[in-house]
Amino acid sequence: MSRPPETVTYLFDPLCGWCYGATDALDALAAHPGISLDLAPTGLFSGAGARAMDEAFAAYAWDNDRRIARLTGRTFAEAYRRNVLDGRGRFDSGPATLALTAARLADPGAERAALKAIQAARYAEGRDVTDPGVLADVLDGLGLAVAARRIVAPDAELVAAADARTAAARAEMRRFGLGGVPALLWGEGAGRRSLGSAALFGDASALIRSLTAG
Fold first, then answer.
1. Rounded mean pLDDT of the chain?
2. What is the 3-state secondary structure (H, E, C) of the chain?
3. pLDDT score for 1
4. In this model, does residue 180 exceed pLDDT 70?
5. Which CATH number fits domain 6-212: 3.40.50.920, 3.40.30.10, 2.60.40.10, 3.40.50.12370?
């Protein structure tokens, strides 16, 4: 009898540069038949965690993003620096978290693609993913027309679903003493344990073997 897939929960924020840097590891986990990957947005940079994109914060973010690019090879385009960081908008992941939740409600299997598309829109294309219109366009490009319409004028059900997801993810962060994202949790219930973030930036094949061994 074959073993059931191992549940791996990914704690993240869609505006986290390090989470974008973990794309290749997430792709490997998502593709493995012995792993069931669950996305858990934390809302870390929404609500009280949101802020204005002022000059000092933009400079800090760009320095950090260049470190991520050197480590992971991910693209942080000049358009991102010019239009997003220097655009002096908001650093607020609330709208993107709503978009991901809308995608999940429309098609649970589409959320991973939606996350990648939102990250690419921000970091590779320099688009403002705090703008519901931009997010709707991204979702529409994935064939998620119903989700796209919901993000333009979020209804109470969508807002409640997003709030419930972020509250549950924050509770898990507190449970395991996690101060930031990305992070991985392995297993379920009382047997769940934290793998932290370092596992996402090493050898993905070694990570998968450790998760599926036994």
1. 94
2. CCCCCEEEEEEECCCCHHHHHCHHHHHHHHHCCCEEEEEEECCCCCHHHCEECCHHHHHHHHHHHHHHHHHHCCCCCHHHHHHHHCCCCEECCHHHHHHHHHHHHHCHHHHHHHHHHHHHHHHHCCCCCCCHHHHHHHHHHCCCHHHHHHHHCCCHHHHHHHHHHHHHHHHHHHHCCCCCCCEEEECCHHHCEEEECHHHHCCHHHHHHHHHCC
3. 46
4. yes
5. 3.40.30.10
